[in-house]
Amino acid sequence: MKKWIAAAVVVVLVLAAAVWYKAGSAPAVVETPETAATPAPTATPTPTPVPTPAATPVNADSLDYEFDVYVETYKYDNGVTDEDLRSSQDTRYLMYEDIYSSGYDHWDAAKEQEEGCTHEFIEEFRQYSLGRNLEQIPDPTATETPADTGEKYEVSPGVYNDGTTRELTPEEVENMTIEEKRAYSDAVAKELGGASWDDLKKISEEKTQEAFDDLYDPNNPYIQDFLEYKASLNN
Fold first, then answer.
1. In this predicted model, what pLDDT tens digit does every residue of 112-162 receive, in sequence order?
2. Chain mean position to CA 163
3. Is the pTM here over 0.70, yes or no?
4. Can you list the positions of beta strands (E) in the chain?
5. Non-local CB neighbours of 141 within 8 Å, separated by 6+ positions
């Protein structure tokens, strides 16, 4: 009986050892979620472009003179600054040509100077326009050099295309605009090297007085006819 009990104990111990060994050598069970969440890739944010400030359109109503409007419009349209114009004669001349081609010339500039325009570029533009008008500055847009025919012609009253001048009659002076008188004065000053506007005015007044004296000279053969005609109107 004791042998059977001992044998049973041995069997139990063997079974227990087998169970213990199997439990110890089995891999651990890892619980896996039913649905594995895969993180989405992080999107790189697109940088917001910084808008370039737009140039302010020209408000003609805020400017006193037409020349100011031309300059500000050219700066706006071509993206140039006052400093660009100050530092480069070529840049200024491109602007002057653009203004000149628009129909605004040295006569207009002289008129606005008399009205009080003191823009830093208006005097140089006036000289540029006069030079273009007298053909001392060639047309930069011309594709061919004009043939020199040697023909001399007036570009304004009393001023020839070669820069020389002629003496004006009192009637011509009387009918000239202030711009034409200024252009004539400038041409005379360049030709004679120093004639002033006052000198020109004095000469014009003297010529006018001479013409007036000739008209009422008693020795004038036409004065009697004129006086008789005038008297007939009163009868």
1. 999 999 999 999 999 999 888 877 788 887 766 555 566 787 888 888 877
2. 29
3. no
4. 154-156, 159-160
5. 97, 101
